[in-house]
């Protein structure tokens, strides 16, 4: 069990390092073949290879300086789960996600719960953040 736990922890750290580099291929390489994402605040649920690539590409396109830093990482006793507190930030450079570009910067805490496969790859990544706070930081003041 301990080897799997260490392997998943390393995989999660590798994922967020690749995210900082904006290397989507390296991010995907951290997932098992059928790996999925579930981004709760926006109702996005599906394949990392499809929905993950779409949202990550969109975020990098709209926020070219997008980055993250791991604030805390907790490995589950089961050896198959990791919970991560992440601070994600970026400056908006173009319209996107129904947010008009005002050139504003956001810095927003996120929580990721990751479950892994026996080989240490990511089977499922679930993310939570305060979407209303994100909109407010970027100057979006209406629902439309």
Describe this entry's structure for a reader.
This protein has 144 residues and is α+β, with helices and mostly antiparallel strands. The protein has a single domain (2-137), classed as Nuclear Transport Factor 2, Chain: A (Roll), CATH 3.10.450.50. 33% of the residues lie in helices and 36% in strands. The protein contains four helices and six strands, in the order ααββαββββα. The chain has helices at residues 2-21, 24-28, 48-62, 131-137, and strands at 31-39, 44-47, 67-75, 81-91, 105-116, 122-128. Strands 2-1-6-5-4-3 form a six-stranded mixed beta sheet, with helices on both faces. Strand 3 (67-75) and strand 4 (81-91) form a beta hairpin. The longest helix is centred in the first third of the chain and has 20 residues, at 2-21. It is globular and about 45 Å long.
